[in-house]
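so the lab meeting is tmrw and i was supposed to have these ready like two days ago... anyway. pasting both below. for each one the top line is the aa sequence and the line under it is the structure tokens. i havent really looked at them closely yet so no promises
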Amino acid sequence: MSLRNIAIIAHVDHGKTTLVDQLLAQSGVFRANEATVERAMDSNDQERERGITILAKCTSVLWHGKAGETRINIIDTPGHADFGGEVERILGMVDGCVLLVDAEEGVMPQTKFVLGKALKMGLRPILCLNKVDRPHADPDRVHNDAFDLFAAMGASDEQLDFPHIYASGKAGWATLDLAQPNDNLAPLFDLIVDHVPPPKAEQRKDEPFQILSVLIENDPFLGRLLTGRIESGKAVPGMAIKALSRDGKEIERGRITKVLAFRGLKRQPIDDAEAGDIVAIAGLSKATVADTLCAMEVSEALPAQPIDPPTISMTVSVNDSPLAGREGDKVQSRVIAARLLKEAEANVAIRVTETSEKDAFEVAGRGELQLGVLIESMRREGFEVSISRPRVVYQEGENGERMEPVEDVMIDVDEEFTGIVIEKLSARKAELKDMGPSGAGKTRISLMSPSRSLIGYQGEFLTDTRGSGVLNRVFSHYEPYKGPIDAGRKGVLVSNSDGETAAYALWNLEERGVMFVGAGEKTYQGMIIGENSRSDDLDVNPMKAKQLTNVRASGKDEAVRLTPPRRPTLEQAIAYIEEDELVEVTPKSIRLRKKVLNPSFRKKRVRED
């Protein structure tokens, strides 16, 4: 039986996971009477809620095609650039990739990001034009754009000679020619078998065992599981192995307790696995991502792919507000530190360091979404933490000048909103590269923008475009520091005492701005309860009750009707706060507060980066 290892790479929401559903279904993975779920590979709760892939996952299918029986190992990768660390690691396990592009939206920033990594590693891609059955699809234009992108990214002649196929992942069909309709994905399976080469490692079956760990997870019964592609030799349960770090130092010795292969959506124990196959190995307790697991006679580690450095960081500290410890059970600094270090071990795109502040840790990652997903996971596990405003990670240039990360931004908006979007981003030091129609009355705007300009801009963007705009961004490179940026956020309403909010007080405060809290909620001195309509901060009393009198005049006791509060989500809260503010995150609540809870006076807001 021959073997193929492929990754499916695409921009977020272009249909990767839906296509994998159909590949699994049509290859006979599910029984006829078995209940199947939509987006089967998105097994994480947050993945299902957000509708995006966060973690790279493996599956495999058996295909009985023209070339006989072939096992195809498929890796579903995240489409969002914030989780690019997952993509960078797993591309070393595969010999080819399917680049999925929406036939209406076309090539997007994250498409460039993952494609650049794949081309650099010498993978030969297959272009799959998905969603060709959409009303505004233009597969010929998108095909030409994709070819231009390949050429612009320095693809070799062999890579430029890529095959393409038209598909509808949701409907479950693919065809090499739109004039010849089809009702299944057989042409895609056959194209993968014909175009993707078998693993080169298959030729090293007789050499000593070696595998590079690229994914790590913990199983409650088997302990630490390390996933990778066997580069040489054979893995057999009970075999003595050792783990080597990147520089060849021995980390630990042990025995393989289980060899697990991916069979459909399940991992099954197998008696042996040969070079070229993607497996998970149990038995070691210290080895981690980028370590080499090998036979005892091996002395050199396998080369690991370099990972792009983090661009955004924030401070995670112990929750020290007056309401601390009431909703979560994991509040100590040592427990928070252990959880963050565990995340950094499994996710190589996250870096955790101690700070000079007491009980505080700096967490650096690829973007606000990645850091938000981490904090949301901790929140669901029962942690209570305080989060600072995200800030960019600067680097030092050759001449000692400060360099800041710059992002490639692509925006699709209705034509009527192009003016305000360009005006707002130009004020934030973004540079317009290109603008033109993208079909269906939309305009596509391409810009280069400093990363710090985009912190907190997403909410403002959705307001400006009335929720119809789509903003995509991906890290591009570092440029010299562009100077201070005035984002122009309004001031906030700050509670001046402890207690429970009163409806009467909030009703009177509504003319001052927008409320973040409702009536009957606990608050404390220094907690942010709303946004001021002006640019400075304002101390207010949200507990002020109505003074009762003995007068019974008409209209004296009208009912208090409050406008529903604008409760920020975790990502919105992290992006909203300023340098002198924190987000208090607990399993049940998200509160905004001042770093200093009871200062003698409030300064007029001055924003500098």
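ok protien two:
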Amino acid sequence: MSKVIAAIERWAREKPAAPALSGNPVSYSYAELRDAVVSAADILAEHISSTGPIALALDNGPHWVVLDLALARLDRAALPLPPFFTASQRQNAMRDCGATCLITDRPPSGSSCVSLDEPMFTGLTIVRLAHEGVELHSGTSKITYTSGSTGAPKGLCLAQSSIETVADSLVSILGPSCAGVHVPLLPLGVLLENVAGLYATLLAGGHYCALSSTAVGLASPFAPDWQAMVRSLSRSQATSTILVPELLRGLVGALEATGERLPHLKLVAVGGARVSPDLLARADHVGLPVVQGYGLSEAASVVSLNTPSDNGVGSVGRLLPHVRAEIAQDGEIVIQNIAGLGYVGCPALPRRYATGDIGSLDGNGRLHVHGRKDHLLITAYGRNVSPEWIESELTARLEIAQAFVFGDGNADLGALIVPSAATVSGAQIDTAMEAVNQSLPEYARVRHWAATMPFSVRGGTLTTNGRLRRGAIVARYGALMNRCLAQTGRTVRFFDRIVAETARERERLYATPQIRDGLAGRISRATYIAYLTQAYHHVRHTVPLLEFARSRLAEDQTWLRAAFDDYIDEERGHDDWILNDIRHAGGDPAGVVAGKAHRTTQRMIDEAYAFIDQSNPAGLLGMVFVLEGTSTQLATKGADAVAKALNLPPECFSYLSSHGALDLDHLAGFQLLMDQVDSPKDQSDIIEMARRVFVLFADMFAAIPHDQEQKLVA
């Protein structure tokens, strides 16, 4: 029997009323959790007769936990799907491993679905899948998909016994720290949280407080609500949590800014990437008991961990009791008893597994990880530099959220920098870079840098555990990196010029009362439908405008055709999304189609056609900048605020919500495209068009009424 299931049954006998699992909408004592897992297993056995893995795509919460444990009880292979996977990534994972069904709280439209009507599973749906069967490694109980640092995502097969051995080892070294209140900040679909958070807590007889992503401030992975995170940890009286370095940086910053403290926390485990000593010092100053660890999926998550009572700062701790490892002659960490069975469709993993990480064991038996074997940079002076070391120093600064260091074979190093907020200026980054450089040896200093959009899982530049996908970043940003290394200091990109030189017009748009009120949820349903109506009338021209501009490109602009083709493919059908939103919100889509655009909306459309025809077709990219940039900044936040204020379901916000997520990656692609625009006339015309559209877009919003009694005046 599963060790975790056996532990729940033991705790149900010894302390039946003790809290075991909580979160919206239910809470369980250990006796209740035991019974819930048995009932859930019976329900699943009744609804799912087919063999093959069962995929879980759920937000954090008691549902996730009970289903995971029920599958373990049934000895059925589970495929946890993290919420940050795109729809395509989810489909590819399910197809790759031959998943036979999906249990989700967000069923895809048009699927063969069965609602789980039982009270314990309210809001969940089973989606039948028609994938071909796949032969998995014998003993597979969990399949975790990881993108690694390069290449296509791969599904790693793990046995329940191997996973539980890791959790058992953690309990043995942490002791009572595991038996308090654990609040997950990472998704349960991530192996580290599933094993080191959930299983370790239940084995120790602790309380797993499975709060939703919204409750802990992570509803939007691109814009965490750090204060909500602090409140959730405080209210739940969390004694432990697990973080990646980026979450640690944000949590530390929030505590520094507010002066609040979290005295109940006894253990904050951090892994996934190197953590700067400066960040660890800041964490200690605000009272966070941070310990570093090291692990990898092939080892069923954790390999080594410091503990509060045995914290070797600067190391990633001692090897867990069950782990056997050595350091090869070239410095590579080699695990002698790897836990993973093998990847889907591939041979079994070798028992002696070379991790690809460079490390060392000190005289006290603590492991130190220096970086990836294939990431080492060799400067023109022959010095070996681990980029992870410098990146951790850079991201310890409040001004810097992410950093990618490069410069192999170059005299000096460069870095792509993601500012921690849109309000962080280039001058502030300059100051931060200088401070970091003063703490680094001469050969490791960063002399060249350029700002860029956030690296993300969705965009293919981060792995699922938060590590940089270095090959993907080089492929995407290679041209910018070369230009960056060609000049000392900050590289000012053409995209940055667009942002700077349209600031006044952009502020006029954002100051429009209708936008301010929409972001605060202070609008009526009629106002929202009026906005969608005008959005329909200009969005239905997006593809025709792109096609017209493509057809008018001059000979020296033909390199833009591929970009226009991509935009055309992406934008098709978005006007239909808007009509569906209007229908769900109670509007009349047929009347909208039959009607005419307001004069302010029509003026913006006419201006775009005229600019293409009479000035420069490349100028349309200025309009692309306005519309995609506005979506990224406003769409998701506005959709959430309006939905809450008007109590409207998600079906009313497919256009806004989709654009809020999609356009972040689109805007990153747009930045790269702008890096290639070197014609002074094209640059000037793109900026001029952006200025005009900001003003015309503001006029369109200003004409939208604020309540049901007002009418659009033509």
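from a quick look at the 2nd one: The CA atoms of residues 623 and 693 lie 6 Å apart. Residues 708-714 have pLDDT under 50 and may be disordered. will dig more after coffe
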